[in-house]
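Lab meeting, action items carried over

1. Structure of the two-component assembly. Owner: GW. Status: complete.
Input record:
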Amino acid sequence: MIIVYFKQAWQLLKQNRFYTGIYILATGFSIALVMVLAIVFYIKIANIYPETGRNRLLIVETGKVLRPDSTRSQYGLSLETVRQCLYPLQQAEAVSAVYRGRGKNYIQPENKEPQIPVTVKYVDTGFWKVFAFSFIHGKAFSEADMESAMQTVVITESLARRLFGNTEVTGKYIHLNFTPYRICGVVKDVSYLANKTFAQLWMPYTACPGFRAALSGNNDGQTLGTFAGYALAPSVKAVDKLKEEIQSNVSRYDASLGELKFSIDGPDRQWRSVFRLSRGQTEGEFTQLLLQYAFIFLVLLLIPAISLSGMAESQMERRISEIGVRRAFGAPKGSLLWQLIMENLLFTILGGLLGLGTSYLLVYFFRDWILHWGINQMFYSVIPEGVDVLLSPGMLMNYTVFLVALGVCLVLNLMTTVIPAWHASRREIVYSLNSK
Amino acid sequence: MLKNIWKQLMNRKRKNLWIALELLLVFCLLWYIVDYFFLLNYNRSIRSYRDMKHTYKLELAEYTANQTEYSEQEDTPDAAIANLRRIVQRLREHPDVESVALAIEASSFPGRDINTGVKYRNREDNSRVADIQFIRFVPEEDYFQVFRHISGDGKTAVSMNNYDWNDPENILITRMMEKQLFPGQSAIGKMIEVHENRFYPDLRKEYKVIGILDDIKRFDYLRPYSVMFIPERINEINYHSVTIGFRTNGKTPASRFIPAFKKEMNSRLQLGNYYLEDILYFPKIEKDTEYEYGMTNEIRMRTAMMIFFLVNMTLCLLGTFWYRVNARKEEVGIRRALGADTVSIRRLFIQEGLLLLLLVMVPAMIIEVQFVFMGMTNTLMADIPSYGNYLPDHTFLRFLLTNLITWLILAVMVILAVWYPARSASRITPVDALRDE
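Predicted assembly:
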């Protein structure tokens, strides 16, 4: 039956090219914007290289202290906190702490060329287990390198090519900030969008020049500092257990601190960390933020839905006489309603395809900034010089995005057609037949 | 005529209800965005009396003890300060460099100003307090000439040499600060004293105003703010935070000047433990800061939303009117037969659209007033007490103006959307239209 409806709709389409063109264009346009947002959130939340375990990852980036004089602070974690609460985790497959050192980094090429700015991350050995980097040459630095603060680094494929012309560079030295470092491994480039892992060069945090100063600079019972912690659960199901373990470690640590009250923000699942504001927020604020996003999505669908409804209503009018005839021959209202909705679905799906294609183009061409959309952060980091925001086809074309697109089509179609179709199928038969 | 159109509209109540609803929603949402852009462009249009074109920041770095190039004997304050002065000298010898500015901390240069939280007040009248930014320049080089500061309502170019910097209490302030602390009088020769200062122990308790500069803005999208310019000599404590800026003659554009300068000066500016890390174009610094503060994204987001709403609405009108024209073929035919020309038929449909828009404006404004009362329009410093006469502070006038702008934008879109269907209607010949009858 549905095929007959579609055939009928196809005939309608051919009869009325201008109108259907406008209708499909309007549908496509509105779906494009919603899909851009959907893709942005997909890239922020889904498992993308090298953060392929995002669905079983727990993230602790900041903590809070309440001092006896009732002043409070919020900042990153200290290494001591990571050692007390995260490194000993029993239920985790792997745990990593990343030192968030600031400052600019430059590489001095061999041939006295001007310096090359690079993004550096200071990590531990667990980092390479929590995140699934693919090594092209060499391997990650070892526990021993870490402990002896060896000046050894992992670099990306593109940086290796730029400096040496090839990727087989393990064992060679580079000069970073006028200090020689030995290359121990080369990995596939990481997209700027994988914000927890993105860098062009990774080194043990013990080898970072500012590391010791940062350790001694801590106060507040050594709880806050410049580290972020990541713990990977062995399976998605085990995440909740791991969460409990982290919380119990934190309360035990807190109890050992005397009068100082220490707590962490989180631990967050990936999707939740996306909505976490840099100042941290309460449970209630989280719900409020989610409601806010739901509202924005609704408005984004409502505006096109109303405009499409208006157009559908006009279109129904032309078919009133046909509907009258069918009613006169005994067609129930329900089946007429169903038919009108299904017919319209064809237009909506055509619009959906157009919209999805457009959204890919939009995301691709505006990838430098469009992916910052959605979350109101206090700060947006400017993309470093010489960094291209990599988008892999898998980030755009995947079942999740297709399903969301289909879902949006169905919702939009229902929002658009139900009221006009309801009106049309309920008209008095006499009136319908008489309309022309 | 109007009555006629009104009747036509009422006859198709239900279909017009859809368009009206769409117009209403789009009107309110669009107004919200228009209001934001109105404020933004108003602020952007306020002149900032300094000029960042052709100015650059020199980023110097120092070798540290674990690096091979490090020299211990160059790491004394005296040697380092001497090296800094030699770097300035070499910079000035560069044929493209016109003048050099020295300041303490990067926040003393445009584009990176931070919120200091420092307050000063009028010494004679303690109730006059102002939140201020301060810029600490080194009175060895002409900071004011590099950034083309101006005084006397945009007339006189300011130079460091016009003032006496022997007394470290002497400062320059902006007109905004004068208005805030000394309303209705000249601040020259007057004293100010600290009201609140938690983070900057090296600022003095009292300063004497010796000159007034024209207003500058912290960022282009904000209004002018109160600034004081404090002279500070290089000494053993602050030499690490000396920052260098300079102005070129503008013959080479920034994109070509920067790489050429780096290549040429890389080894010449390596003195003692100092070396050239980078050079940055000040307008670019400002742009990056706007980006970091989320301003750039905010503007792009709102522009995208505006386009989205407008296109949706236009397509809605286009589709609906297309159908309406077809449904009213007979009516058009009769009108044509009775002697109406194509122009008047077209006008009829366009007037219908515009009247609908006018009707929608009333409920839209009622909804918008709620937005205003909820305080959702207090953006971009419009809520901070200001000492200038700014149009957006007159809420009622701003409300009318932004609504008018919204109506005009929508009217253009309505005309565009209705025009094509109306044209095809006006081309219907009476014979065709009335054949069925």
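2. GW to write a short summary for the group page. Key points so far: The first helix of chain A runs from residue 2 to 15. The mean pLDDT of chain A is 82.
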